[in-house]
Design brief:
mainly alpha
Length: about 80
């Protein structure tokens, strides 16, 4: 399911969703708003999901992050759980 489709499905279930196209836009949104959950792909333009995760934690944000990706690499799965 792509980002816009996931946004639609979540909104249909009553959730408020802010969808961005890449990691840089995510950082801009995170500077201006608070969120209950971040859902991130690992492979994004400008700032990938790993770097976004690092920057979110460096800012002291404790927002839970769910990784949603098409990657099938075992090392990605292991790293995500760390």
């Amino acid at each position: 399911m792509t980002g816009p489709m996931a946004k639609y499905v979540l909104e249909e279930r009553g959730h408020s969703v802010t969808w961005v196209r890449d990691g840089a836009d995510a950082l801009i949104e995170l500077a201006d708003s608070t969120f209950n959950l971040i859902i991130s792909d690992l492979e994004m333009p400008t700032i990938d999901g790993w770097k976004l995760l690092e920057l979110v934690r460096d800012r002291g944000l404790e927002t839970p992050i769910a990784i949603w990706t098409g990657s099938t690499r075992e090392e990605d799965e292991i790293r995500a759980f760390e």
